[in-house]
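This is your field. Have a critical look at both lines of this record:
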Amino acid sequence: MKAASVRWFLLGYVVLLVLLIAICSGSDEQGIGIGLSWGNGNYSFSGAAPPWAIAFAVVSAGLYAVLFWSHVDATSKPMPHLFRRFVAGMVDWALGIMMSATVVGLISILIEYKQTGVFAWVINRQEPRPWDALEAVTGFFLVFAAMVVYMAVPLSRGKPTPGACIFGYCVMADEGSRLTFWFATLRALLGSVALLGWPCWILAYALKRDKNQGKFWLDAIFRTHAEFLT
């Protein structure tokens, strides 16, 4: 299957996910992952992986795998639209968070089940227990690491991320080569910081911007560029 054909399945999936989140915005089972707050004498620990989140995470992982093994037909025509790449990056972050936070939340509720013998898809308690802080901090770093890997793996294989596929382009290494996985991981890590740090994103419009080659400063550092998919 061509990567460009997968985009319509991905687009439909994202639309359904957004609609479900909008419909369930007031539900107690909307949240996923692990949360911990402690201040002014108030303590709260939460962990959640409701069935709808698990179902969407499984579908998302399946589409990610299909895209990974798909055939990429790049046009060799540079894709100059930097705002399109920004929106695609936000889509990738949202999907990456959804998948990884669901896994972390599921681990949390399984730990709670082992401790209490009571299973619940959503945990929300005000009584502290040993290792809550460690569990929350570890979960945070696992989610962040998973999102970086989520973007680095396709880049190291010359494949588009789901967000890039939806918007019809792929980030490729210059001169037909491929980035190593660790080099791609470093690019994904730096790109994530730039994506979430709005001053860095504004600078992207002024530093090393080359529309004719589909590049901005991150591409100049790692010798990559964006190409349209066919």
User: Anything to note?
Assistant: The first strand starts at residue 33 and ends at 39. The chain has a mean pLDDT of 86.
